[in-house]
Write a structure and sequence with these properties.
The complex is a heterotrimer. By secondary structure, chain A is mostly helical. Chain A contains 9 helices and 2 strands. The N and C termini of chain C lie far apart (75 Å). The C terminus of chain C is likely disordered. Classes of the chains: A mainly alpha, B alpha+beta, C mainly alpha.
């Protein structure tokens, strides 16, 4: 015991670090039971790749007829349609690893051709009332108008700096395991196409923004502004995450006060020292 | 116990001499010149900060190294005098303070009147504080909504009932007071499967309206969780369930968001059917009970 | 040359003997005594950069349109306050460095004040005869606290405007006088137009004036009473050991001033802080999330988030929820801070003057109480980031909030108890650092006491029959 408390402190630190690491682990990416991969589908000369992929990967949760099962929602109602299907596929939200989970952005499982095929199958087969895949043109929007639209409609959830946020979710009787919170995403994995689709269809917990809320022209401006937000003019230097006062306070303590503590340790004497 | 004996004689410059000090000052001069050049060329914040920091830091290093190496160290001793003064000193202070206090006619009455005068002046001087603002009056209890007023969005355009899609939220204001901050209202349409809260004649086809001002600390309740129809305030995470009449289901808010009765006018625009029936926003001492 | 100058001055001011006395004055050299100086020099940087800012900032909420060089806001309507801040940041040379250095200086100013206050607390430097200086110091802290809040609220941006709304609601929640208090301070119903100009004059003149005055008193008292010192060779209650004011202490202090300015200016140019152009101008019906105040208000914000939805309603009147976290908690906090020297004097029945400081271990109860209190505020501080934590961990905000509600009850007394045991262990084992304290001394201090050497030689030979 002559080494004292040092080993105990080390153990405590290791446990805390391990706990943080454990909490940060990512879910395993989804892989359907039999995964052929893009080359297999394209080269195999499958007659209707959209139908093939839908029945293989999506019908387990959404049903052969698209009307949903206990594991997944009905794709023939509300804002479902070309735009929403395109959105969830190109942002990697679907297929989802566990049906209980909230949709999360990730690496898309399918390539462009496969996505187009599934979208066209869903649109023609299920006749959902939601919007079609939009065509976005960033050239026509105005940056300042986009800033105002973003601040009015998006900043509350996604943060003025675009870093995302959090809300809570209540587990309900149908899905008692649903205890994970709603993570409001940032826009790292969302290009202009995905954003336009999300705005018009309100995927997951997001509200729907129709043309009354955000007109088509305002949407183009919004997309221009959001493209700017991905690489804003960090005129002031290192943006340190653009999180706001919390990180700024931490940096002020660690960097500012930390450096000055080193300076005064250098200037002054330490305990027991005689100059 | 560590001993660092640095009882140097002046001029005893230590192993490296004054070189580090001169180097630090040289860097400082160079940085100061550089920052003036940067500034003259139009300025650039990162360069300005780094170079100014270097210029100031060079002087800091020079001074501190100079003090450590060339100035006498901390072995000087000084005696602490006893802080409390002697009894004689204290006696002479109170004697000096009461000079001129020999018997004066009606002294205590004069003192009392002086005190009252100062007190009265002090009270009078407080009254300009009243000029700082308007009296609260009724302003916390009413908003600018009236029966028949059309709702408008931020750009001043009125809203038709069919423009409000399911799971859409809009922030609306009274048409005649579109900038009224306390009248800010959330307009949204619930999915058909969810029964609309509140009295029947306060909602139309699942379209409902609630005050946007959080009843906790007044932030706009701007987040809407469409799947479970919950309004969420970002400041302290109060959560309001729309289906239950915007009752708080989590967080520090203790009261529901007041509901605005709405209807549709002849032209199909959404209108208010009256003001809120309770004060909007955070509580206060004399807030009338629901 | 110095002789000529000093003779010239002495002829007119008769300053020679005072100057000689001053130059020879001895100050102890421990590094932790310079925390207050760091705060003071940060304040000087605040004054200097602040003066620059006042030449450009327009404290008016009159509506205008931005036409400067920051494209995403060009043509957007905003208040003059916001416009002048954005223009200062993008269209005034060195404007952004000054603005950011000012903000970093505020952050470091209050941080160093807190560390300084903790040093004074844990070493017992507030004891007689320094109670007056403690009171002056706590007042300086409160002034700095509020000036920081008023400062970052001046640009009228979306984030700080939200903070003003919360402040308004807290004022409103005060029993009996709440609505008058809010209406008079702000000038009317929120968002009243007078608040920005009023905050401006408070921020640049009234509070800095008070700080300068009180700081002078603070230093004068230290000068008069002489600084305290840690126990050590040659140090007694009746002497002061250290460097002379001239040349060593003064040169070191001036060097520290340059170091503080260097760090703050460098941060002002290299690290972005408070990018209000990204937050956008304030609108009372809009908000951003996550939304936190600057760090020194974190404990009140955390309290506002984790205190349950308690409201008191009786006899037709109510005390709404924000009162507890926003008014009652700070009131109790500052009240206890002010009263502490007197509370401790009564608890320890020690009214003797003290010029030699305590080490933390010398007063285990005070240290433990201090750590309990510090942990309490630290938990509140972290609780203010509950939504950020929820986002990073992909957890429910409700779960995170509940965790903090449990932690605020359990963690402070636990830390206090552990601290007490550690301090006692340090005392009996006479170890230098707490990482080298033998576990035995912490677990069984009474048995350890007085038998340390024998135990040490026993342990090195055979396994201890420890209980």
């Amino acid at each position: 015991m002559r080494r004292g408390l040092a080993p105990l402190l080390l153990l405590l630190a290791t446990v805390v670090a391990a706990g943080c690491g454990f909490l940060q682990r990512e879910a395993e990416p989804y892989r359907p039971p039999v995964y052929y991969g893009p080359a297999e589908v394209a080269g195999a000369g499958v007659a209707n790749p959209g139908e093939h992929l839908y029945l293989r990967d999506c019908s387990y949760c959404h049903g052969n007829d698209g009307k949903g099962t206990t594991r997944g929602p009905d794709l023939t109602v509300e804002t479902n349609g070309g735009a929403l299907t395109d959105f969830v596929l190109r942002t990697g939200r679907m297929p989802i690893a566990d049906a209980v989970d909230q949709m999360e952005p990730g690496e898309p499982v399918y390539n462009e051709d496969e996505i187009d095929a599934i979208v066209s199958y869903v649109t023609t087969q299920f006749h959902a009332p939601g919007p079609e895949v939009p065509h976005v043109d960033l050239g026509k929007g105005k940056l300042a108008e986009g800033q105002q639209v973003y601040q009015e409609h998006c900043a509350a959830c996604h943060a003025t700096t675009g870093i995302g946020g959090a809300m809570l979710i209540h587990p309900d009787e149908d899905e008692p395991r649903k205890t994970r919170g709603i993570v409001i995403p940032n826009f790292e994995r969302s290009g202009a196409q995905a954003v336009a689709e999300a705005v018009r269809t309100g995927p997951g917990s997001m509200p729907v923004f129709g043309t009354r809320a955000i007109s088509d022209h305002e949407l183009e401006s919004l997309l221009r502004y959001m493209r700017y937000l991905k690489e804003p003019a960090d005129e002031g230097g290192l943006p340190i995450g653009r999180v706001g006062p919390v990180v700024e306070g931490a940096v002020g303590w660690l960097v500012g006060l930390g450096l000055l503590l080193l300076v005064i340790r250098w200037i002054g004497t330490k305990a027991g020292e005689v100059e | 116990m560590k001993t660092k004996s640095r009882m140097l004689r002046p001029g005893d410059a230590g192993p490296a001499g004054p070189t580090p000090i001169l180097v630090a000052l040289g860097i400082s001069i160079a940085a100061a010149v550089a920052v003036t050049v940067v500034y003259a060329l139009g300025g650039q914040p990162q360069l300005e900060g780094a170079l100014l920091g270097l210029a100031l830091g060079g002087v800091a290093v020079a001074l501190i190294v100079f003090a450590r190496r060339m100035l006498p160290g901390g072995h000087f001793v000084q005696v602490r005098e006893d802080l409390p003064g002697t009894a004689d000193e204290r006696a002479s202070v109170s004697a000096a303070f009461s000079t001129g206090a020999e018997p004066i006619e009606r002294r205590s009455l004069m003192v009392k009147m002086f005190g009252l005068a100062v007190g009265a002046l002090g009270l009078a001087a407080l009254f300009p504080v009243r000029s700082l603002g308007t009296r609260p009056g009724q302003s916390l209890r009413v908003t600018d909504w009236k029966r028949g007023t059309r709702v408008v969005t931020g750009n001043g355009e009125p809203v038709r009932l069919e423009e409000v899609d399911v799971n859409t939220i809009l922030t609306v204001f009274p048409e005649d007071h579109p900038d009224s901050p306390d009248s800010q209202t959330i307009l949204l349409r619930l999915p058909p499967s969810v029964p609309a809260p509140g009295p029947r004649d306060w909602t139309v086809e699942g379209v409902v309206a609630f005050s946007k001002i959080c009843t906790h600390a007044g932030c706009p309740v701007s987040l809407y969780q469409a799947q479970s129809q919950e309004l969420f305030c970002p400041c302290h995470q109060s959560t309001f369930s729309v289906a239950q009449g915007a009752k708080p289901t989590f967080g520090p808010a203790a009261r529901r968001l007041p509901q605005l009765p709405i209807g549709v006018n002849d032209q199909g625009f959404v209108v208010a059917m009256g003001d809120f029936t309770e004060p909007v926003g955070p509580g206060f001492w004399s807030r009338p009970r629901d | 040359m110095i002789n000529r100058a000093s003779r010239w001055i002495d002829d007119r001011l008769s300053a020679a003997s005072f100057t000689r006395h001053a130059l020879n004055k001895v100050f102890p050299d421990h590094w932790s005594f310079m925390l207050g100086e760091v705060a003071m020099y940060s304040f000087v940087v605040l004054l200097l950069t602040g003066i620059f800012l006042t030449f450009f900032f327009d404290p008016s909420v009159a509506e205008t349109t931005y036409e400067g060089s920051y494209a995403p806001l060009r043509g957007v309507k905003m208040s003059e306050a916001f416009r002048s801040t954005v223009e200062l940041s993008f269209d005034v040379r060195a404007g952004l460095v000054m603005r950011q250095a000012h903000h970093w200086a505020a952050i470091v100013f209050i941080a160093s004040l807190v560390l300084h206050m903790l040093r004074v607390f844990f070493t017992g430097a507030f004891r007689r005869p320094r109670e007056i200086n403690w009171i002056v110091g706590v007042t300086l802290f409160i002034l700095a606290f509020f000036n920081g809040f008023s400062g970052y609220s001046l640009p009228d941006d979306l984030l700080s405007g939200t903070g003003l709304r919360i402040a308004y609601s807290i004022a409103l929640s005060v029993p009996m006088i709440g609505s008058w208090l809010a209406f008079l301070v702000f000038g009317g119903e929120f968002p009243a137009h007078e608040i920005i100009p009023r905050l401006f004059i408070t921020h640049v003149m009234i509070v800095p004036g008070l700080i300068i005055g009180l700081l002078t008193v603070h230093l004068a008292i230290i000068w008069r009473q002489k600084h305290t010192d840690f126990p050590g060779p040659g140090r007694r209650e009746t002497n002061v050991v250290g460097s002379r004011l001239w040349p060593t202490y003064a040169i070191n202090s001036i060097g520290l001033f340059f170091a503080v300015s260097a760090v703050l200016i460098a941060m002002g140019g290299l690290l972005q802080v408070n990018p209000v152009w990204l937050y956008g101008p304030f609108h009372p019906d809009q908000v951003t999330s996550p939304a936190q105040p600057d760090w020194w208000l974190g404990w009140t914000e955390g309290a506002l988030r984790i205190i349950p939805s308690w409201e008191i309603r009786a006899f037709g009147f109510e005390i709404p929820n924000p009162f507890f976290a926003g008014a009652l908690l700070p009131g109790i906090t500052f009240g206890l801070l002010y009263l502490w020297p007197f509370i401790e004097a009564r608890m320890t029945r020690d009214r003797e003057p003290h010029h030699i400081l305590d080490r933390a271990r010398d007063r285990p109860v005070r240290t433990a109480l201090g750590m309990t209190t510090l942990t309490f505020y630290a938990v509140l501080q972290v609780a203010a980031s509950n939504d950020l934590i929820a986002n990073k961990l992909a957890a429910s905000v409700a779960t995170i909030t509940r965790v903090f509600q449990v932690l605020i009850i359990l963690l402070p007394p636990l830390v206090g108890y552990v601290t007490y045991r550690l301090m006692k262990g340090l005392q009996v084992s006479r170890a230098e650092r707490f990482s080298t304290v033998p576990l035995d001394a912490v677990l069984h201090p009474k048995r350890y006491n007085g038998a340390s050497e024998e135990r040490a030689s026993e342990e090195s030979e055979e396994p201890t029959t420890s209980s």
